[in-house]
Amino acid sequence: MCQFFHVSTEKLSKEFLIRLDRQVYVTPTSYLEMINTFKDLLAKKREEILNAKTRYERGLGQLDETQKQVVVMQETLKSLQPALISATQDVEKMLLEVDKEREEVAEFEKVVKQDEAAAEVSVANSNF
């Protein structure tokens, strides 16, 4: 490939000389420089590809780890589901009991207020 570029450049430099009367030199040094430039570019691209591959593999590893965590969490959720249902039922029972007790207290409060009013009337009558 580099040889093709070098030979093509030599041909184009001759054509450039004929058409524009300008000399362009294609030397072995320029050929070696082109090879070194190609090697540098190849090394950079290989490094970029290796970095991309490493990032991709890390991402896949992270996805795999996350999938394992999701499975564990689902199993935990399934095992805790009966306890949640039981706790919900207990809370509902307690709420019913609290409502019932609240009604009883409200009735008792009415009786106490009536007794209090009667006591106040009795005190008022006894003071006169």
UniProtKB/TrEMBL annotation:
Residues 1-41 form the Dynein heavy chain AAA module D4 domain. It comes from the Eukaryota. InterPro entries: DHC, Dynein_heavy_chain_D4_dom. Keywords: Coiled coil. GO terms for biological process: microtubule-based movement. The keyword Coiled coil applies. GO terms for molecular function: dynein intermediate chain binding; dynein light intermediate chain binding. Pfam families: AAA_8. Residues 84-118 form a coiled coil. GO terms for cellular component: dynein complex. Gene3D superfamilies: 1.10.287.2610. Belongs to the dynein heavy chain family. This is Dynein heavy chain 7, axonemal-like. It comes from Ceratina calcarata. The lineage of its organism: Eukaryota, Metazoa, Ecdysozoa, Arthropoda, Hexapoda.
